[in-house]
């Protein structure tokens, strides 16, 4: 008999880097990875700084995240092509954490989230992320896109707000409207130029580094023309040209308890985002990632990122897709991408001071537009009322509450709707047994005659479908509608793949009533798991007898009736 191979611990957690090297890594592969790594680094350079600024921290922390976290994710991860770094999906959570708890609190939450991800991966819980429904994924992604765009309106239009910019969208919109008179034409022009260049280059020169060219052009234009716009230099004083030494953030028991909700949020979102990115890479390449190995790498990467002063790190879909399209052969391209970013920071850090914040806002505006999954959103709205309800609930709760509540709301709604559909799929048929078997045709034409004679002493109840708590009420009602009081009752479980405790209790109550009336009870075609659950609830001898199939059950019932008459 063939047995399914169960992968060992070593097989589950061997990094893809080891797998690629074992397969044979040649000079041609290295050259391809160098080109892919450089391409992704050019994309990641402005994007990492833009995400950091939008998250409420200095731009250098975005680079630390991409360099340290990105290297570890590629070196230890379970995907051949995953590129790690700061992600737009974290902007809202990181900004809220920094606002309430400060940068030290953020670093501790990132460190804790890494430990949580490490534990989740080692406990092999990564496979459960695949159970998040598609409408939930699209809904929270679209919600994040809206929030990211809203967070960039201030810098897109060069607005000057009175006081700190509110984090909540409901509070943010009135504040932005009130600041409308401070509209900066120069900042808006730079943002618009950046967006036009990114979109145009993506369409007409897709192989060119559009993000870097757009940000570079905006920076040169602002410097040469002396435009009155805010830059990285004027707001943050530039960025360092070296990595900081690793250091632990302040840790205490009270602080750990205080930061635990944020850490759990980072871990949940990080696991979802990274595994979705790995799935995208799989679909583009025909490869398969190791989900739990990937989560272990994400955990180590977040711990290291926090030690070096970085923010949340995860697998990023856009950069991973860029890596695949650039011809990467394996994880070395991701490691080289981190190395190139480090070189850029060491060599060109002073130039970052000239980057206008409006240009970075333009970068994130295009990221938000591309994140929104507009076609999938529209398709789900048309698919069914259930999908539309889950989609819109997730989308709206994400926007007006927070991301985690949005995911939980969508997931719970999806689960309830799925249970409702499954409960409707469970059916109960009750009928008496024909007096004659219908195993032969009755004439030369091959047609069967209808047998009118029925054995009124035997009632057959046939249940079909997954019988669980959601269907227990409807099945119980069907049992209650049975008016006849036969001498034997057969319950056929041939079409029941699943039986839970609530369903077993429903069956036990029905059979107990029939047994009290003196009926003989036979359980037909119950598999081992169903029979075990039934026996746990008292559905066993001497109250019932078991038969392998329905015909055997009928013979058992007839024998019991005959024995009683004798």
What topology emerges from the helices and strands here?
Elements: H1 9-13, H2 16-23, H3 27-54, H4 59-76, E1 84-85, H5 91-122, H6 134-156, H7 169-178, H8 185-204, H9 210-225, H10 232-236, H11 253-285, H12 291-307, E2 314-315, H13 317-325, H14 332-348, H15 357-371, H16 374-383, H17 385-400, H18 403-425, E3 427-434, E4 454-464, H19 469-480, E5 488-495, H20 501-516, E6 520-524, H21 528-536, E7 544-547, H22 550-565
Parallel strand pairs: 4-5, 5-6, 6-7
Antiparallel strand pairs: 1-2, 3-4
How does this model look, in words?
It comes from Dongia rigui. It is a multi-pass membrane protein. This is SulP family inorganic anion transporter. There is one protein chain. With 566 residues, this protein is an alpha/beta fold. The chain folds into 2 domains: 15-415, no CATH class; 426-436 and 452-565, Transcription Regulator spoIIAA, CATH 3.30.750. Helix content is 63%, strand content 7%. It contains 22 helices and 7 strands. The chain has helices at 9-13, 16-23, 27-54, 59-76, 91-122, 134-156, 169-178, 185-204, 210-225, 232-236, 253-285, 291-307, 317-325, 332-348, 357-371, 374-383, 385-400, 403-425, 469-480, 501-516, 528-536, 550-565; strands at 84-85, 314-315, 427-434, 454-464, 488-495, 520-524, 544-547. The strands form 2 sheets. It has a 5-stranded mixed sheet, with helices on both faces. Strands 1-2 form a two-stranded antiparallel ribbon. Helix 3 crosses helix 14 (332-348), helix 4 (59-76) runs antiparallel to helix 14 (332-348) and helix 19 (469-480) packs parallel to helix 20. It is elongated, with a radius of gyration of 31 Å. The two termini are 47 Å apart. The model is unreliable at 434-441 and 448-454 (pLDDT under 50).
């Amino acid at each position: 008999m063939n047995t399914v191979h169960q992968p060992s611990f070593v097989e589950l957690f061997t990094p893809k880097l080891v797998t690629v090297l074992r397969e044979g890594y040649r000079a041609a592969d290295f050259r391809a990875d160098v080109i892919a790594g450089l391409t992704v680094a050019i994309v990641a350079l402005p994007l990492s700084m833009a995400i950091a600024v939008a998250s409420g921290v200095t731009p250098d922390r975005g680079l630390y995240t991409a360099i340290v976290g990105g290297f570890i994710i590629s070196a230890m991860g379970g995907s051949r092509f995953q590129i790690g770094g700061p992600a737009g999906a974290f902007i809202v959570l990181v900004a809220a954490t920094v606002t309430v708890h400060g940068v030290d609190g953020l670093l501790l939450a990132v460190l804790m989230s890494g430990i949580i991800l490490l534990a989740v991966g080692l406990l092999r819980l990564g496979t459960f992320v695949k159970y998040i429904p598609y409408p939930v994924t699209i809904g929270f992604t679209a919600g994040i896109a809206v929030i990211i765009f809203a967070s960039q309106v201030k810098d897109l239009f060069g607005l000057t707000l009175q006081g700190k910019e509110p984090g909540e969208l409901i509070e943010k919109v009135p504040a932005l409207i009130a600041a409308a008179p401070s509209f900066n034409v120069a900042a808006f022009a730079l943002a618009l130029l950046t967006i036009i260049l990114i979109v145009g280059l993506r369409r007409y020169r897709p192989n060119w580094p559009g993000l870097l060219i757009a940000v570079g052009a905006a920076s040169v234009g602002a410097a040469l023309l002396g435009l009155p716009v805010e830059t990285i230099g004027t707001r943050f004083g530039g960025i360092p040209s070296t990595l900081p030494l690793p250091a632990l953030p302040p840790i205490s028991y009270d602080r750990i308890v205080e930061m635990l909700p944020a850490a759990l949020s980072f871990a949940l979102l990080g696991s979802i985002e990274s595994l979705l990115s790995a799935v995208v890479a799989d679909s583009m390449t025909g490869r398969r990632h190791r989900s739990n190995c990937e989560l272990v790498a994400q955990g180590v990467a977040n711990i290291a990122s926090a030690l070096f002063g970085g923010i949340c790190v995860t697998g990023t879909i856009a950069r991973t897709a860029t890596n695949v399209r650039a011809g990467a052969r394996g994880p070395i391209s991701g490691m080289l991408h981190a190395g190139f970013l480090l070189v850029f920071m060491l060599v060109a850090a002073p130039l970052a001071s000239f980057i206008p914040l409006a240009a970075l806002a333009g970068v994130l505006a295009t990221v938000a537009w591309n994140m929104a999954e507009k076609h999938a959103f529209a398709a789900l709205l048309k698919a069914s009322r259930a999908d539309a309800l889950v989609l819109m609930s997730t989308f709206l709760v994400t926007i007006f509450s927070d991301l985690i509540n949005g995911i939980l709301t969508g997931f719970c709604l999806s689960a309830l709707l799925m249970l409702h559909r499954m409960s409707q799929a469970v059916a109960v048929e009750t009928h008496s047994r024909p007096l004659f078997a219908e195993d032969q045709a009755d004439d030369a034409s091959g047609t069967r005659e209808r047998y009118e004679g029925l054995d009124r002493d035997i009632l057959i109840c046939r249940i079909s479908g997954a019988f669980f708590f959601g269907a227990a009420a409807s099945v119980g009602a069907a049992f209650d509608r049975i008016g006849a009081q036969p001498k034997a009752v057969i319950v056929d479980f041939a079409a029941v793949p699943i039986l839970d405790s609530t369903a077993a209790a429903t069956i036990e109550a029905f059979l107990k009533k029939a047994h009290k009336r003196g009926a003989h009870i036979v359980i037909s075609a119950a598999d081992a798991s169903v029979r075990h659950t039934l026996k746990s609830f008292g559905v066993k001898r001497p109250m019932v007898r078991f038969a392998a199939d329905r015909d055997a059950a009928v013979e058992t019932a007839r024998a019991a009736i005959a024995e009683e008459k004798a």
